[in-house]
Amino acid sequence: MIYSTLLALAVVITSAGCKTEHHSMRAGDTWPAQSTSQPSPAATFSPGTSAVSEPAKQQIPIPTNWTPELTNQDSNGQTIDTIHFDFGSSVIRASEQVKLQSVTSALQLDKEANLLIKGNCDERGTGEYNRVLGEHRALAAREALAGMGIDPIRIRTISYGKDKPVDPGHNEAAWWQNRRDDFVLLNPKTGE
User: Domain with 91 in it: what CATH number?
Assistant: First the structure.
């Protein structure tokens, strides 16, 4: 009787552990290998769910162990530009291309600097959904900058999801401001 009860309990515990997994991208995670080498198409997102279809990404190397501390960079770097996104999208708008060119120019002028791209979202959607979407946005900008000639090893991404809004409002004007990538230039520390 005890053996049967323990066996039934083991089956219940095992089957409970086999539910669908939900993964969220975190800074430094790599994209799964894709069968195509085409530039990434628009990612498809479903607000209110954790389902996110990952776009095909070019194989751009992800820096390993890249942190401001490990690369002797000033972690309080200067935000040099910001781009904004449409709702539920990681596609960089044509109107934002001039800002990417500005970031490219800054990195070309300062060969010692690295770049941190902070992906952000508005308050709509789950926390997991927004973390993944924020990472997709940051990676889309990283890929675009790599296409403009910036060595991707100099670029690190992080997603804050909906956790760091610049406008605390609950309307479209606030949401527009919060759907963004911030580009932070990290310069070598001086005097050390």
Answer: 3.30.1330.60
Give the chain's domain count.
1
* Average pLDDT value for residue range 171-182: 97
pLDDT tens profile 2-59:
655 544 544 444 444 433 333 333 334 333 332 222 233 344 444 443 334 444 344 4
What three-state secondary structure class fits 157? strand
Assess if residue 15 is contained within a domain.
no
Q: Where are the beta strands (DSSP E) in the chain?
A: 44-45, 52-53, 78-84, 114-120, 155-161, 180-186
Q: How far apart, in whole angstroms, are the C-alpha atoms of residue 134 and residue 179? A: 8
The pLDDT value recorded for residue 45 is 47
Which range is least confidently modeled, 23-32, 71-80, 85-94? Answer: 23-32
Q: Which domain holds residue 160?
A: 79-192
Domain presence at residue 5: no
In a domain, 115, yes or no: yes
Smallest CA-to-CA distance from 119 within 180, 47, 66, 175 is with 180
| Single-letter amino acid, residue 26 | R
